[in-house]
Amino acid sequence: MKKMNPLLNVKQLSVRYATGADEVRAVDEVSFSIRPGEVVGLVGESGSGKSSVAQAILGLLDQHNTTIAGRIEFDGENLFSCDESGWNAVRGRRIGMIFQSPESSFNPVATVGAQMVEALRWHFKLAKVEARQRALAALREVGMPRPEEVMHNYAFELSGGMCQRAALALVMALQPALVLADEPTASLDVLAQAELVQWLALIQKKRGFAMLVISHDLNLVARLADQVLVMHGGRLLEKGATRRVLANPQHPYTEQLLRAVPRLITADMRTHNDHSVKNGVVLP
Amino acid sequence: MDIVNVNPADVKPASEMRRLLRAFLRHRLAHAGLLGLLLITVAALVGPTLVHHSAQTSNLDAIYSGPSWSHLLGTDQLGRDLLARLLAGAQVSLSVALAATIVASLLGCLYGLVAGMGPVWLDRVLMQFLDAMLAIPVLLLVIVSQAFGESSLLKVIVVIGLASWMGTARLMRTECGRLMQSEFINAAIMGGASRLSLALRHVLPNAAAPLLVVVTVGIGQAVLIESTLSFLNLGVPSTLPSWGNLLGNGMSSMLSGAWWVVLFPGLMIVVTVLCINLVGDGLRDTVDPKRRTHL
Ligand SMILES: Nc1ncnc2c1ncn2[C@@H]1O[C@H](COP(=O)(O)OP(=O)(O)OP(=O)(O)O)[C@@H](O)[C@H]1O
Ligand SMILES: [Mg+2]
């Protein structure tokens, strides 16, 4: 099979944070690529630099204290040579991002609807009424109950799961070719987590966008990703097809990660006979 | 199948504003401070009409007469009623402090926002300048400013404003740094928000609570600066009865044994600043529960 051109190509990416006199090497010469429609999981413990990778891809790192080296190509275009308007065309519209904490991905002083409408208007140059209709349609698509009401709510008036869905709706409404999901389930309760993962898998199949799923939840990654990247201390230790990496880890750190998966899930998941289970992780 | 009906996360949290208001109202000392401020403000507004004496009419038959029924707080070296002068002074001092604080807050917010949201090099330059400004004693700035123009109310306001915007600027800059890392700002950037819109619609409103604390405390500080300046004859024109002027006036009368001309203006200043600081502390504890001091 001939390889498709990668949609995202990260080459030798390094991110350093200046903290006082010190410097933290958060990302150290990381290279990987994502093909159109491919789902890639990025796993690693807290502080391994996962979020820094995502923020670098979108140019969201604080310029005051970060140094970036390397190259990121999106659709053949070097993102680091983008000016402000170049970034604006990429951010949201071509690369979407789902944030870790759903409540805080909306401005607490504006309604959820206002923020959705604003983004839709800006990206698609729509009139207010049209943008509103699209926002409503997007909310319906992610199965939001009473979308008209939600439009008038502030984020703090919604539950975490509802906020996450609203955020998801907005990301999807902009129809990006690549979605970065930074620990999308980390702050949800177990039921909301399962629901979100189901939605993500479904909508990804339907729309066929590429996705980078960042998580330390190996089950989530196993469920969604075709490829897995394992990060530790800013370095990429292992990458490969999800099944291969999880069933037959090459790096001792990956093995360690696999061993750390809670046992409870193992017992529960073993009853599913359509999946094979290895080290507590349900393999795709 | 419908399984989930009760989800604890679905319970609506109280509105943030209402929570803050409730927390503030629980703060007893802030209550006392607020009550004190209210009394002082009402006294400043309606007091002068209730007192029989005028703040400016001198009475040479009653020079340095101590507190009595006809002059509750006594009279000064020209026989002017001290109570009437204190009440008129409250109007002057409080409005100067308020106006100066508004000047300082606007200036500080603008400065902090430009530093925090502008290009990195501009931030560096502005922060260096801010540090330099902080290193210069306020009084020195004020004395230098005496070289420019006649003393007037407007000038006092501008001078105090120019001498006290730095705290607000620093806070605004810190808030920019904090908020710019938050997810909703990143989400707004993904939605195409411009820098200006980020600054005015996303950063500023979300920095309102800590700003309110700084502004409140700033009013107290401005009262103090005004008093100091007027006391040194560098502030409000001596024809107007500000608290600082009264105090300065009183100091030169101390030798005559008229303690009341010093005590009462001094007391007014101290009590007012104390009340403002209590309210400020209450606000701070509400805004930032981690730093709460249990009293
Ligand atoms: N703004 C910052 N300033 C200084 N250091 C930072 C900053 N952001 C992250 N770091 C440091 O960089 C390293 C990587 O952080 P990053 O947030 O990318 O990790 P992560 O893998 O996403 O972790 P988590 O799972 O906790 O989200 C950490 O050591 C962190 O302390
Ligand atoms: Mg992270």
Structural account:
The complex is a heterodimer of chains A (284) and B (295). By secondary structure, chain A is α/β, with parallel strands linked by helices. Helices cover 38% and strands 26% of the residues of chain A. Chain A contains 11 helices and 12 strands. By secondary structure, chain B is an all-alpha fold. Chain B is 69% helix and 0% strand. Chain A binds chain B through residues 55, 58, 60, 62-64, 88, 91-93, 96-97, 99-101, 104-110, 115, 118-119, 122-123, 154-157, 159-162, 167, 170, 189, 191-192, and chain B through 4, 7-13, 15-16, 120, 123, 177, 180-184, 186-193, 201-202, 205-206. Bound molecules: adenosine-5'-triphosphate and magnesium ion. Adenosine-5'-triphosphate binds at residues 17, 19, 24, 26, 44, 46-52, 62, 65 of chain A.
> What is the mean predicted local confidence, pLDDT of chain B?
81
Q: Identify the bound ligands.
A: adenosine-5'-triphosphate, magnesium ion
Shape call of chain A = globular
Q: What is the N-to-C succession of helices and strands of chain A?
A: EEEHEEHEHHHHEHEHEEHHHEE
Task: Report the helical percentage of chain B.
Answer: 55-70%
In total, the number of domains of chain B comes to 1
Count all strands of chain B and give the number.
0
Oligomer: heterodimer
What would the principal axes of the Cα set say about the shape of chain B?
elongated
Order of helices and strands of chain B: HHHHHHHHHHHH
Task: Tell me the distance between the termini of chain B.
Answer: 54 Å
- CATH domain class name of chain B: Mainly Alpha
The biggest beta sheet of chain A reads: 6 strands, mixed
What is the helix content of chain A? 25-40%
Instruction: Enter the CATH topology name of chain B.
Output: MetI-like fold
